[in-house]
Design brief:
The protein contains ten helices and 13 strands. With 319 residues, it is of the alpha+beta class. It has three domains: 81 residues, 2-Layer Sandwich (Hypothetical 12.0 Kda Protein In Nam8-gar1 Intergenic Region, Chain: A); 85 residues, Orthogonal Bundle (Arc Repressor Mutant, subunit A), CATH 1.10.10; 84 residues, Alpha-Beta Plaits (2-Layer Sandwich), CATH 3.30.70.
């Protein structure tokens, strides 16, 4: 006889419910949550479990009021796993079941957030002006249509594979017989954060260029003690010898001056000046170069120099 919820005859119908399901072993388990609270819990906005769960129990079927027997839970999750830990595992890792309207609304929210992020970080490389969200939306729609077509063609081609070729980022080796696969964009999903999907969208737009795009540059203030500027730059430690130019006998090679190397990171210098015993330059740097620049300055100046972000994404706005 199945274990049920203690309730009067004439089953209580749960209203405003969201189900989270997880298959563990050969069984499927469910928990009953309040709508909108699951996503708030997973994002860290909601921290009180009582505000998330309608009933603090695990079910085989919420709609039938059929709770999961203790022995079944022990087989699936382990005998030493507490009910609370099982609930948390399902809540954090399970599949959220939502209605069609709610699913569509959730997808639209994530889609709009992705478009907003991308539109704020990409510019026309010639004018440095941002694109409207509508233009970014159309460009991504074009890429997703192309991606869907390519996947259909790949599946229809005998011997084809949807698995992208593996490229070792540590060297320049590419798969033999295949060109390096460009990033694809197939559309927004609700199972990943908008931020991570926006990064994928930017990579695909930059790679395929359905419209001319480039990353907006960061505006930095770089400071360095003047005595250090003319010092010769020495290569990185032995572990980085593949790009440092270390000689065969382990000695370090010299690569220009500290000032030369710092300026090599800067695409456009806005102004530079010497104030007292400190050199200062304000300029524009590609976001991808910021980490390397910061590490270089820190290493060469032993923490006395720094790179300060003035603007994360510099664009030209229309008046």
């Amino acid at each position: 006889m199945p274990v049920g919820i203690n309730q009067p005859s004439g089953q209580i119908k749960l209203t405003n419910v969201s189900l989270v399901r997880m298959k563990k072993g050969k069984k499927r388990y469910e928990i009953a949550c309040y709508k909108n609270k699951v996503l708030e819990w997973r994002s860290g906005v909601e921290k009180d479990l009582d505000n998330v769960l309608q009933i603090p129990n695990v079910f085989l079927s919420v709609s039938k009021g059929q709770a999961a027997p203790t022995q079944e839970l022990a087989k699936s999750f382990g005998a030493k796993t507490s009910l609370n830990d099982i609930i948390l595992e399902i809540l954090n890792k399970g599949e959220l079941q939502v209605g069609e309207k709610e699913r569509h609304a959730q997808l639209e929210r994530v889609h709009n957030e992705v478009i907003d992020i991308v539109a704020g970080k990409l510019v026309d490389p010639k004018t440095k002006r941002v694109y409207t969200t509508g233009m970014i939306d159309k460009a991504l729609d074009q890429l997703s249509s192309q991606g869907a077509t390519q996947q259909s063609e790949a599946k229809a081609t005998p011997g084809s594979s949807d698995i992208p070729p593996v490229v070792n980022e540590g060297d320049n080796t590419e798969p033999k017989g295949k060109a390096k696969e460009l990033p694809r964009w197939t559309g927004v999903v609700t199972t990943r954060s908008a931020k991570s999907q926006a990064l994928d969208a930017m990579k695909a737009l930059i790679a395929h260029q359905p419209i001319p795009v480039a990353r907006a540059r960061m505006r930095l203030r770089i400071t360095c003690p003047t005595p250090i500027l003319k010092q010769a730059v020495k290569s990185a430690p032995r572990s980085h010898s593949h790009d440092s130019g270390e000689t065969a006998d382990g000695e370090e090679k010299v690569h220009g001056t500290v000032k030369d190397r710092i300026l090599s990171f800067v695409e456009e210098v806005e102004k530079q000046d010497v104030v007292g015993d400190e050199w200062e330059v304000v300029g524009f740097v590609e976001p991808g170069a910021f980490k390397a620049l910061s590490e270089f300055i820190g290493g060469q100046t032993k923490g006395r120099g720094r790179a300060e972000v003035l603007d994360m994404a510099v664009v030209h706005e229309d008046d």
